[in-house]
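Example 279.
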Amino acid sequence: PSENIIGGKSFTAVAVNCASKAGEWIKSKIGSITQLDTKYSMQDLVTEVDKGAERMIRNLIATHFPNHSFLGEEGVEPGPEASAKALEEMGDAEYLWIVDPVDGTTNYVHGFPFYSVSIALAYRGQVIVGVVYDPSRDELFVAERGKGAYVHGRKMSVSSEKTLSQSLIATGFPADPIVALPANLKNMQALAPKVRNLRVAGSAALHLAYVAAGRLSGFWEHNLSAWDIAAGALLVEEAGGRMSDMENGPYRLAVRNVAATNGWIHEELIQELQAAVNT
Ligand code: 2AM
Ligand code: CA
Ligand code: CA
Ligand code: CA
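Predicted structure in complex with calcium ion:
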């Protein structure tokens, strides 16, 4: 896997091709969505574009790598248990593609231009390629393990803030109203006065790409799934940043509560998140 190639076809080239093709199509459909359904809850949206984009990506990957496994948000039953179970069943596949066709569906549906296509390839549970594409700005974020992270060919580096007080940090409002939302509101209340400011823009994958690009100092969020995080996690790590769970344990595909930073502020962020949970 180190040469990132099978039979002459580069994994990264296929990931990039999928993300840009699907992204172009998604963007072309904005404003003409005909099916808006809810899945697990009233806030959990899906459109025919989410499903169509996932099918497009899945088919393209299958033509290049028919033996690889595929985990996509729209191919799994809704809800956190089903997504954890699907990952458990596939997590030790040799090659596993992990895809979120539209990350930020709520934004997409409302025409708020902050959504993305997220495509990761894991080899025996470790992400080796991560691609996040932002169709609204035509920004393509690409990382290969050990080879750095790039936005349209320009090398990315995380930001250099050394304290939370200098930091711009993003998070999300989790869709689960019983446990995750109240927990994160506590976190936000604790962090808001300690940071330069908070942002909640609505695409976890794109937030992670922005940490990699140095546009955000850090990001945390509760209750995510592998397809929200996997590609962005490699972007952050390859741009010199740090990934962990919210207890500062190592990042793995199964992590749902995630923290990503420029590295400098990691301990301070984790400490504040933990302190908020324990009050
Ligand atoms: P999505 O748009 O692919 O569903 C926003 O904070 C982040 O939370 C996005 O990455 C969004 O991904 C995700 N999200 C939205 N609804 C969700 C739900 N019901 N369960 C889990 N994650 C969700
Ligand atoms: Ca969704
Ligand atoms: Ca998502
Ligand atoms: Ca999605």
